[in-house]
Design a protein that fits this description.
By secondary structure, this protein is mainly alpha-helical. The chain has one domain. Helices cover about 45% and strands about 10% of the residues. The protein contains ten helices and six strands; from the N terminus they run αββαααβαβββααααα. Strands 1-2 form a two-stranded antiparallel ribbon. A two-stranded parallel sheet has the order 3-4. It has a two-stranded antiparallel sheet with strand order 5-6. The radius of gyration is 19 Å and the shape is globular.
Amino acid sequence: MLSQQEEHNKPLQGLPDTVNIDGIEMTFGPYLPARRAAEAYCRSVGITLPFPKVYQKLNISRAKQVAQLYDEMKHMPDDPVVISSYKALCDETWAQWQFIKRTGLHVEFSPMEQPYANPRKAILDISENNHFYVNSTRGAFGSDEQGSALALEQDDPNPLLVLTDEIISGQAALLNDIFRIVHDFFGHAKEGLGFRAAGEDNAWRGHATMYSPLARRALATELRGQNSWVNYGPYGASNRKAGMDDTVFAPQKLGLLPEWVAWEGAADEVVQPSAVSLISCSEKVV
């Protein structure tokens, strides 16, 4: 029987055993400093929802539905519910960042457009070096459906573009910079999750656990909505095979998807005891 600590340190059930990185088979799993920081944050704000323990296969039908909903979602920066949800997302992301700083993670703005030849190397940089390069939001914030950059000079109403007092590489970080760091740390590095469609949805599942229901609506738009659009929207077929430079990213919009998007499939599925018994019996008969 595993000890409580050994049980706590186990990787997600069903997590791919190995991943090929530049011709080398590598094993990914939980980064315990990130797990501990996430748990400490949740305790500090009274969140009691359990983190996922299972790596879920992607529900492609749902991903296509979410992609369509995001495509049809209106840009509503003045809607009071949208504003409230995004404010909660920003406030809670900032609070999570304080717990990441306690781990000693050294963050720098990347001196090049793509600091990691493979996105998985960002996870390795965090777990092996306690270091992370983030691309600065300045100059471009997402892209429209043609892939053209959205400049900050457009006075975008997105609250994620607010300046913070956090200094990274000698310049004040935008809240979107902090959000990207926080999500890559708590969403991806914490469990060793990749950046393709299934990895992104599982990263969203784990990170969504750390947010209030109000903030979770905006988080679903920013993560599940945009990632579904990228992988199963109008350019999904090519995006699923493309590198970063050739990927068409989702158009940036402020809005909220239907509430079910923020919850459906987020928690591990609960198997009823009766179902387990029936499965066991049928297996014995076979």
